[in-house]
Amino acid sequence: MSFEVFEKLEAKVQQAIDTITLLQMEIEELKEKNSSLSQEVQQAQGNREALEQENAQLKEQQTVWQDRLQSLLGKMEEVN
User: Fold this and answer.
1) For the chain, which residues make up each domain, given as ranges?
2) How far apart are CA 75 and CA 80, in angstroms?
3) What pLDDT, in 10s, does the model give residues 31-54?
4) Mean pLDDT throughout 45-67?
5) pLDDT averaged over the chain?
6) How would DSSP label each residue in 29-57?
């Protein structure tokens, strides 16, 4: 009788070990995925910053061109 109880206990312990092993593997996979996603986020932030800088430069260029165009239009009106 006690041998059967021992076998059942052993089976439950083995099942618990198997479950723990699977959960540890899943944790490692999730850690790797988290690390990968963190890198992607950092890269996206870098890209965003670069795009914001480029946007600011383009806006500045646009302003310069608008000022030059206004100046040229003013000169043309003076001629007429």
Assistant:
1) 1-79
2) 9
3) 999 999 999 999 999 999 999 999
4) 98
5) 95
6) HHHHHHHHHHHHHHHHHHHHHHHHHHHHH
The dihedral formed by the CA atoms of 33, 36, 40 and 46, expressed in degrees to the nearest 10: 140
Residue 1 pLDDT more than 70?
Answer: no
> What are the C-alpha distances in Å from 11 to residues 14, 15, 59?
5, 6, 71
- Split at pLDDT 50, 70, 90, the class of 78 is confident
Q: Report the distance separating Cα 61 and Cα 55, nearest Å.
A: 10
Question: Considering only CA atoms, which of 53, 6, 18, 28 is closest in space to residue 61?
Answer: 53
Q: For 1, which DSSP code? A: -
Dig out the tokens for 10 from the structure.
């052993």
- For the chain, report the end-to-end CA distance as a whole number of angstroms: 116
